[in-house]
Design a protein that fits this description.
The complex is a heterodimer. By secondary structure, chain A is an alpha+beta fold. Chain A has helices at 3-14, 38-47, 107-120, 162-176, 202-222, 267-278, 280-287, 293-297, 344-361, 378-383, 393-401, 404-430, 435-441, and strands spanning 17-25, 31-36, 49-52, 66-71, 77-79, 87-96, 124-136, 181-186, 192-197, 200-201, 226-228, 242-250, 253-254, 306-307, 309-311, 318-320, 333-335, 387-388. By secondary structure, chain B is mainly α. In chain B, 61% of the residues lie in helices and 5% in strands. Classes of the chains: A alpha+beta, B mainly alpha.
């Protein structure tokens, strides 16, 4: 038994924990939870907890359905949201086959494999997400338009605003769970919130994002509200993205920093960005996995639709933020296309591998875009060599299908399942008649 | 010696004497020997003493140098015979130590008869001598040195080297046993550590908090089996003076003391260094705290220690400081060593580590590596430790620290055989002594046999071997013995457990045997022991031979994924053949046969089943040539001749089936042993099928003629179809054929006769029986099952003229007439060539028809619930995809590109690439997927005996296949397979359906 397992078992005794929730994530990014009694946890550490994998999206077919969930002691946290009397804790799990070999269907394992590859190249990978979401007055009702909690705008201080209280409550809870929150403010759309998580290694961050979504939803419910991570609930207001800052470290040294390069972005950093750009189309289906995701990307403003990078250019897909003198170790790049409704494990894995591919192959960085990309004409963009990101889930699937990079990153099993699932979603969507069509065509046709 | 007046003659006789004692440069030696005091030292008979020196040339030059510095120092060598003896031996064996005497010639006095070398050989004397050097009070506890700083360090180094020289004298001049030398070296190391601690105590800052502090020796020093030059492994433990005190300050003091103690030993000063003190075996290794409290040590081993760390603890021994604390440490941690061995996979983890070490040795050093190479010291140390860990759990008597001590205990208590233990001990002693001599040369930490011929020669001399050939021979002899250590120490004693011997002699009990087999990877050790018992009990010759053989086999089985299956298979073969003299001779005389059999039985279900059906096939394993697939000509010759000797058709086919079974074993055995490649396996299977069908059809016709007393009225030809036609059969495949005939005698019922023959062949080969059946499938004939089994050539011509369907043309692409009338074969080929290679290519309508058909097959033929990404035949990018694509290209282009008229998939693919119909990249992707699927399907059948088209998702099957393919895990194997076929499917869709890459495919 290792140090952490020991700590977990001791804490459970000391804190009077009544339930332990074993958490893991399905291929589409939905959180799965099995509650066990604390007495069972020691056994779970030693032998895993068996479950039927075929019941989980993307995990297994019926004939190979026995799987085991193994709690990762380093992720143990008390859940502060429950009543004070008896505690509840959560712990993330790794999924294995009955013989103990890792399941390649487990998104955590997908990310771990990418991280292992980075580690073989001498890098560790850190991420820092800015998570946007909407707060509505009530749970969604079929046929009714959602009502945001306010009509404030970007950075508006909302005196006595419900959102303000909500953010304070959510942040307190996140901090209580050891998830550091860096920044929080009101975003550009009615009812829209942003909370930034402090940077951490990618696996921890992905776990934190899963926790974050659960906590935010729960706090909202407690306040009688409804929180949603849907990328684009309103046609006319901006959507919710998850701009994510990425950096690679070699030991203690930020591998993206080079005092003598332009924007202080090292050769490694430049190749990493070049990798993200070259493979941007292939990984889009993972970063933006829903039909609705593409409504956000089409909306302009902060959401990118073209494959380009810029220095402090908020319309570019990749932004290289201003370098703050003396802060070499905070050198990072920001990817702006992914949205909050992605599977963070898979999203980080494809981002990392696209960037590493750039480093491995020594891609050179194309010139940056200094203009607002949205304001350029199509001909101008063409002239500058900018290609468009896929404009629909269907297109994104098609580009991903041809990608060896994504197949290798996700593993063939997840790759195949993901594509099948997304094709089905796209087919279903294509058969829908939308309010837009009814409004536009019915009166005139 | 009589003085000769003739100076020249004297010189030449001295010179030949010098040569005789091993001096190489006699001219120089003669000059040196003329000068005093050397002339006096080597006057008269004493010259012969040079023979004691491993390197006499070097000794002479060292002595000459010493004489130049301090002429008086050599006087002792002239008058003290014993001192001369020792000095020559020591200086001759070690250039490294000679350096010490060059600096301090007066130290030659150490070797005086009844001198220090003899007095300073006990642990207490060494300690007292070193303590005296730093003016430490020997009885104080803790001891304080009055000498500190550089002076203390230099004094310690000088006295260490003096004591070391005395030990070398015992070793090379007096032939003291290796065990005693290793003990003395450990005692010296103990004394050094104790003295260093006395210095460190004295150098402690006056403000430091007092604490209890102890040094535990680990590794070879812990085992009291130290080398001349090696790191000394230690662990430090400390406690505050009063148990209830906060240990923080005590630990700070202790850490300072430990650091200082290490540097006192290992720093380079004017007098050099002693050795490195290595504390890396401590909890958490180099990242962990240098010193821990007792409870922190125990806590670590209770919770976090890795398997190998317990193995290391076997050697822990208190050496310096607070002995009560050290004893508490040993009492605290040792019980955990014995519980750790109960961990599942303990042994396999430990063994895996050993294999990794061996793999990391550069290949060119492997044979010179005395410690880590195969048959080297580590093999003995490791095997002994493994046995200690397995059996020490229940038996405290085998928990000793030293390797030889533990080996002796294991033998005394019946865990290993006495003789085997003695052989291992003698090899271990030889190798350790050799290692010592190598290290002595330059006083360097090495366990590589030097390549320098002069050095090798000196080493050989120091071992009382005449030359380097003898050294080489001795080393080979011992490593060969050690390489058999698993057999001797692990497995042979198991036989004792089941042998009915006289009570009284210690031997392995059944429980202990079971425990050992479980540790070595057997899943059902009780069952395995029953087999061992059945195989070895009794007085028969067979039991006697199996008693010799089984220990080796058990080890080989343990290296396969399924040791239990291997052992069971062996027992069944043995039960069937045990009484056969040649079988026993084969196994007894040729260990390669036994090893091959172990591998086959441990890996392949298919080959095992084939072998068990007729165990005499084991004879094939004797010669590798016999495991190569035989050529079609050879097969035909034997199959025909055998069939001809039978009196009726049924008997003939029965014989053919048994010949076929033997050939299937040959192919599968060659496959398991890695002698036959995947494509060659397909060819070989096709050839065997072909020879069987040829001989069977001939036999059936012959007996038809005999019965009717008239010649067979029609020419009869069998045509191979499908993968059989392309010579790409798999283990589990049916033989697809069609039959054609052409009447010779128009008056007879030719059609009836032909059908009679075709049915007889099909039935006789396919009916159930003791020999595996060959299923002959004629469903590809015109009109399928509703059409006649045989048609005449004209019948085929008419049919194809009227009804030809595109799928039939496609099927004919791999039609290959192979048995029967040659003229008819040619005529048939001419007939179908027009169909399968249409001159105008393929009309669009027919291309569409074939595409539609394929799409339907994809949708309908895949079994319910099958995973399309894992179905090797019909799944995505599987065999059917690649083959249909090839066939479409052939139908379209073979008339204009003759090279495309290749019946094999791989041949046609290459032709399509050469003709530019597919790109080199596409070719590579398709070939890779086709080979992957073909190989995996065969491998699955070979290993698991499961003839199925779906890649097995059974975890045991997957692990087995992954291991044979050298893939890290079953999941990785599935990933590789899915990737290869996904890529092939993409190429297939582009080329077959004419989809361009940009069109969305939204199934």
């Amino acid at each position: 038994m290792d140090k952490q397992t020991e700590f977990v078992l001791r804490s459970i005794e000391e804190r009077d924990i009544r339930f332990v929730r074993l958490w893991f994530t399905d291929v589409l990014g939905f959180l799965k939870s099995v509650a066990i009694a604390p007495a069972e946890l020691e056994g779970a550490f030693e032998e895993g907890i068996g479950f039927d994998g075929s019941a989980i999206e993307g995990f297994a077919r019926v004939h190979e359905s026995d799987m085991l969930a193994w709690p990762d002691a380093s992720t143990f946290q008390l859940l502060p949201t429950r009543s004070e009397v008896s505690g509840v804790a959560r712990i993330f799990c790794d999924i294995t086959m009955p013989d103990g070999s890792p399941s390649w269907a487990d998104p955590r394992h997908v990310l771990k494999r990418s991280l292992a590859k980075a580690s073989d190249m001498g890098f560790s990978f850190y991420t820092h997400p800015e998570i946007e979401f909407f707060l509505f007055k009530a749970e969604p009702q079929p046929g009714a338009l959602p009502v945001p909690i306010d009509n404030f705008g970007y950075f508006d201080h909302s005196p006595h605003g419900i959102g303000h209280d909500f953010r304070r409550e959510a942040i307190l809870m996140l901090e209580a769970m050891g998830i550091s929150v860096e920044f929080s403010h009101h975003e550009g759309a009615p009812g829209q919130q942003e909370i930034d998580l402090r940077y951490a290694d990618a696996l921890t961050t992905a776990d934190n994002i899963m926790t974050f979504r659960a906590i935010v939803k729960e706090v909202a419910l407690k306040e009688g509200l409804y929180a949603s991570f849907m990328p684009k609930p309103f046609s006319t207001a901006p959507g919710s993205g998850m701009h994510t800052h990425l950096s690679l470290f070699e030991g203690d040294r930020n591998a993206f920093f080079d005092a003598n390069s332009q924007y202080q972005l090292s050769k490694v950093g430049q190749s990493f960005v070049a990798g993200l750009l070259r493979h941007a189309g292939e990984i889009t289906a993972v970063l933006n996995q829903w039909v609705n995701s593409y409504k956000r990307l089409a909306g302009g403003g902060e959401a990118p639709a073209y494959v380009c990078w810029g220095h402090n250019n908020r319309s570019a897909m990749v932004r290289v933020p201003m370098y703050k003198p003396g802060k070499g170790n905070s050198t990072r790049i920001e990817v702006r296309s992914l949205d909050t409704a992605c599977n963070p494990y898979l999203a980080f894995a494809v981002l990392l591998n696209a960037g590493l591919k750039g480093i491995e192959e020594g891609y050179t960085l194309p010139p940056g875009a200094e203009d607002d990309v949205w304001s350029l004409s199509a001909a101008e963009r063409r002239a500058m060599g900018m290609t468009a990101l896929p404009t629909s889930l269907g297109e994104a699937i098609r580009v991903m299908e041809a990608s060896d990079l994504v197949a290798e990153t996700l593993g063939e099993h997840v790759f195949d399942f993901f594509l099948r699932n997304k094709r089905a979603e796209w087919e279903e969507y294509r058969r829908q008649v939308t309010p837009f069509e009814l409004e536009k065509y019915l009166p005139v046709l | 010696m009589p003085m000769n007046a003739d100076g020249m003659q004297r010189v030449s006789s001295t010179s030949s004497r010098l040569l005789r004692v091993g001096v190489r440069n006699t001219d120089l030696a003669l000059v040196l020997l003329l000068q005093e005091p050397l002339a006096q030292v080597f006057a008269g008979e004493s010259l012969e003493d040079l023979d004691l020196a491993a390197d006499p040339d070097h000794v002479l030059s060292v002595l000459a140098d010493m004489a130049a510095q301090a002429p008086g120092a050599l006087a002792i060598l002239a008058h003290d015979h014993g001192a001369r003896h020792r000095a020559l031996s020591v200086l001759g064996a070690s250039r490294g130590l000679a350096q010490h005497f060059l600096r301090r010639p007066e130290d030659l006095a150490l070797f005086a008869t009844d001198g220090p070398w003899e007095r300073l050989s006990s642990a207490a004397a060494m300690r007292a001598y070193l303590f005296e050097g730093v003016a430490a009070e020997p009885l104080a506890e803790p001891a304080f040195a009055r000498l500190t700083g550089a002076a203390a360090r230099n004094a310690l180094r000088i006295r260490y080297r003096q004591l070391l020289s005395c030990i070398v004298a015992h070793d090379v001049a007096h032939g003291v046993s290796f065990e005693r030398i290793a003990e003395m070296l450990s005692d010296l190391a103990d004394a050094v550590l104790q003295t260093a601690l006395a210095i460190a105590q004295a150098e402690l800052a006056p403000t430091a908090t007092a604490c209890r502090f102890a040094v535990i020796a680990m590794g070879k020093c812990g085992g009291r089996e130290l080398n001349y030059v090696s790191d000394v492994d230690v662990i430090f433990v400390a406690e505050p003076l009063a148990a209830e005190d906060d240990p923080t300050d005590a630990l700070r003091t202790a850490t300072g003391m430990a650091t200082n103690l290490m540097s006192i030993c290992q720093d380079f000063t004017d007098e050099g260094t002693i050795w490195q003190v290595d504390a890396a075996l401590r909890p958490e290794g180099k990242d962990g705290a240098l010193v821990r409290t007792l409870s922190s040590h125990i806590g670590y081993y209770e919770r976090w220690a890795e398997t190998w760390e317990f193995q290391a603890l076997l050697k822990a021994r208190p050496v310096a400081g607070d002995m009560a604390l050290a004893a508490a440490y040993i009492d605290g941690v040792m019980p955990m060593v014995w519980t750790a061995t109960a961990r599942p996979d303990f042994v396999s983890e430990v063994q895996g580590m050993r294999k990794r070490v061996e793999r990391e040795i550069p290949a060119d050093q492997l044979s010179r590596e005395i410690k880590l190479g195969p048959g080297g010291l580590r093999d003995v140390e490791f095997s002994v430790q493994l046995l200690q860990l397995v059996h020490g759990r229940t038996d405290p008597l085998v928990r000793g620290r030293g390797t030889l001590e533990a080996l002796a205990a294991l033998a005394d208590h019946g865990y290993v055989g006495r003789e085997d233990a003695a052989v291992m001990a003698s090899s271990y002693r030889f190798e350790r002594t050799l290692e010592h001599r190598i290290q002595l040369l330059e006083m360097r930490r090495t366990h590589l046999l030097p390549t320098d011929e002069l050095q090798l020669h000196a080493i050989a001399r120091s071992l009382q071997l005449r030359n380097t050939e003898q050294l080489d021979k001795a080393l080979r002899h011992h490593t060969k013995d050690v390489r058999r250590i698993h057999e001797k120490l692990f497995y042979r004693p198991l036989l004792q457990a089941v042998a009915r011997l006289d009570a009284g002699d210690a031997r392995l009990s059944m429980e202990q045997a079971v425990e050992r087999l479980r540790a070595l990877g057997y899943r059902d050790p009780e069952g395995a022991m029953r087999h061992v018992e059945a195989l070895t009990t009794g007085v028969s010759r067979r039991a006697a031979i199996q008693r010799t053989l089984l220990p080796v086999l058990l080890g080989w089985f343990a290296e396969t994924p399924l040791p239990d299956q291997g052992l069971l298979g062996f027992r069944r073969v043995s039960d069937a053949l045990g009484a056969t003299p040649w079988y026993l001779r084969l196994l007894r005389d040729d260990s390669a046969v036994a090893e091959r059999m172990a591998r086959i039985l441990g890996y392949s279900r298919l080959a095992t089943d084939l072998l068990l059906a007729a165990p005499e096939a084991v004879a094939m394993l004797e010669r590798l040539e016999d495991l190569q697939p035989r050529s079609l000509e050879q097969l035909l010759g034997e199959f025909r001749a055998t069939a001809e000797r039978q009196s009726d058709a049924a008997g003939a086919v029965q014989m053919l089936r048994s010949l076929r079974r033997r050939e299937l074993f040959r192919i599968s055995a060659g496959d398991v042993l890695g002698l036959t490649g995947p494509v060659d396996v397909c060819h070989a299977l096709s050839d065997v099928t072909e020879a069987t069908l040829v001989a069977a059809a001939e036999a059936v016709i012959r007996h038809w003629e005999q019965r009717r007393q008239c010649p067979f009225p029609t020419r009869f030809v069998t045509v191979a179809m499908g993968r059989f036609g392309g010579r790409e059969l798999s283990y589990g495949s049916d033989a697809d054929v069609i039959f054609v005939h052409q009447a010779l005698d128009e008056t007879a019922d030719c059609q009836g006769a032909a059908i009679e023959v075709a049915s007889a062949v099909t039935n006789l080969l396919g009916q159930p029986g003791t020999e595996p059946a060959l299923l002959v499938d004629a469903d590809l004939r015109p009109e399928g099952r509703s059409g006649p089994l045989v048609r005449s050539l004209e019948g085929y011509a008419k049919y194809y003229q009227r009804w030809s369907l595109s799928w039939e043309s496609q099927a004919l692409l791999r039609a290959r007439p192979f048995a029967g009338d040659v003229q008819l074969r040619d005529d048939f080929v001419r007939l179908i060539d027009g169909l399968r290679y249409p001159a105008a290519g393929l009309p669009d309508a027919e291309v569409r028809e074939i595409r539609r058909l394929k799409a339907r097959v994809e949708a309908e033929r895949l079994p319910r619930g099958a995973d399309p990404t894992l179905h090797m035949k019909l799944g995505r990018g599987g065999l059917a995809d690649v083959e249909w694509l090839v066939q479409l290209l052939q139908l379209q282009f073979a008339s204009s590109v003759p090279a495309l008229r290749d019946l094999s998939t791989l041949g046609a693919l290459a032709a399509a690439r050469d003709a530019g119909l597919i790109s080199a990249d596409q070719h590579e992707v398709l070939v890779h997927a086709w080979l992957t699927a073909t190989h995996l399907r065969n491998l699955q059948m070979l290993l698991t005996g499961k003839s199925q088209d779906q890649v097995s998702t059974d975890l045991t099957d997957l692990r087995l296949m992954a291991e044979v393919l050298g893939v890290p895990s079953g999941a990785a194997l599935l990933d590789d397979y899915r990737r290869a076929t996904r890529r092939a499917h993409k190429v297939f869709e582009q080329l077959f359906y004419g989809l361009d890459a940009d069109r969305p495919d939204l199934r």
